[in-house]
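Regression report. Comparing outputs from two consecutive submissions.

Submission 1:
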Amino acid sequence: KAVGIKGSELPTVIDATAGLGRDAFVLASIGCQVRLVERHPVVFLLLQDGLNRAYQDEEIGEMLQQNLRLLNVHHINELDPNSDYADVVYLDPMYPHKQKSALVKKEMRVFQHLVGADLDADELKQMLSREMKQKKAIVHCLILDILLDMPLKLT
């Protein structure tokens, strides 16, 4: 819903922080054309290997080959805004670990340990609004971060 799927209208999407490709897989399985960008070199190779294997799958391989493509760039700023147009740019950065009582799932803890936090998430958001010619940008962010960025209005 967030990417703008309305009836048979399926947007083209650039997943600018692809990770292991879960969000992109969901969008591709719905029918969206998704291009993936992953900045971390180890995660890029893991994603590339996983996609190559998935492309060979008898049930979903053909659909994935048509709808899901890993771009050979390691940062969204390497994209050409004129030729790499997408209706939606999807950004889901890895936020720094916060102290809380519930632990993040084990898989995500391992992933966070490997990749670390996206310390330049704000820079990515600004670059999206400044340079990319998309209709829509979807940015997953923490509610507290949004509240802290909002100007305080006293009435």
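Submission 2:
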Amino acid sequence: MSALQGGEGVNTSRWTGARRWPVPGLGRSKISKWEIAGEHLAERYQQFFLVALGETLLVAGLTYSKGPYEAGHAWAFSLALATSILLWRIYVQRAGQLLAEAMMKARHPASVGRSAADTHLVMVVGLAATAIGYELIIEHPLDRISGAWLATVLGGPALFLAGRARFEYDVFGRVSRARWIAILVLVAAAVPLLHLPGLAATAVAALVLGAVAVADAHRAHGAPPEAAAPPS
């Protein structure tokens, strides 16, 4: 038994070291290490997100490539592409660019780093659900959507926005109202969308994300670039 436990410990250490990802329960890093590694960790988190985002595009492309190439399938594929672009835009504007700065400015960099790991994990789970929704809707764009499908199509973007809202708080110490309003709209839209084709649910998700992106652009227009201001 002790040998088995020892082997598990070695494997865990290898995986943790290979991925360079903070793992709760394996001990806490000293704050000084988080301060030094802030830029490095920020890049890793961003890469983690971008890989997951790329997977959503890959799923959409592979699903559409199977055909048939009819209007409904083409619209579903186009909406999937637009949604992924909007997810990327919302992520980078502007907290996604300033995580390293936020960690350097924070009184407790380790807290910001750990929270960023959690929020990126939530966002990536949202992306995974979104990718599943792409596959379902591209294959059956005009079929009436079931509750399970709808939870995937709308729940993926909603989960992403929830994680992005917390991430925004970690970087700026506040959350824009557009995030919470968008989540509420996605939840409220679920009931009427149960009676419509799946393509309509995908369109609603894309429109809601588009509204968030427009709100972000409007907030930043004409104002100096916002600096990181993590909560104390």
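Expected: both submissions complete independently.
Actual: both completed, but the second showed a warning that disappeared on reload.
Relevant detail on submission 2: The CA atoms of residues 84 and 231 lie 30 Å apart.
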